Amino acid sequence: MGRAHDDRDATMFTELRTPALTLTPISPTARFRRRPNVLVRDLDGEAVLLDLDSGRYFGLNATGVRIFELVDGDRSVEEVRLLLAREFTAPSEAIAADLYELVAALEVEGLLLRLE
């Protein structure tokens, strides 16, 4: 299902290839938390997430891992974006787009729960 990250592939979440997800929009004040039944294994800066309920696994690159770490239920999506902007040199718009895309994908896959 998952595949190893390739430097030519900028996708943070290697399992999803969904062109258009039908989701509830994510507001900047939304808070999410990781589901407790998701195991995380570090692989040299990248990670594999294993959903114990479904048996499915997903790969995250280093940026995706950092986002997954920061989405802890205490911080809003906007607070996560501000932290990422301090840590990464990418343009703010790109950080926001990647953050919202990954959070939406992780929510669709049931790896994150919306708290708002």
Question: Could you explain how this protein is built, in words?
Answer:
The chain has helices spanning 62-70, 77-87, 92-108; strands spanning 32-34, 38-43, 46-51, 57-60, 112-114. The protein is α+β, with helices and mostly antiparallel strands and 116 residues long. The chain has a single domain, classed as Outer Surface Protein A, domain 3. Strands 2-3-4 form a three-stranded antiparallel β-sheet. Strands 1-5 form a two-stranded antiparallel sheet. Helix 2 (77-87) packs across helix 3 (92-108). The longest helix is centred in the last third of the chain and has 17 residues, at 92-108. The chain is globular, with a radius of gyration of 13 Å.
How is this structure best summarized?
This protein is of the alpha+beta class.
Strand content: 15-25%
Mean pLDDT: 84
Label the overall shape: globular
Q: How is the biggest beta sheet arranged? A: 3 strands, antiparallel
Query: How many beta-strand runs?
Result: 5
Q: Find the CATH topology.
A: Outer Surface Protein A, domain 3
Radius of gyration: 13 Å
SS content category? alpha+beta
- Element-level helix/strand string: EEEEHHHE
| Straight-line N-to-C gap | 31 Å
Strand order of the largest sheet: 2-3-4
Per CATH, the architecture is Alpha-Beta Complex
Helix content range: 25-40%
What is the CATH class? Alpha Beta
Oligomer: single chain
| SS field, number of helical segments | 3
Q: Which runs of at least 5 residues are low in confidence (pLDDT < 50)?
A: 1-11, 13-20
Tell me the count of domains.
1
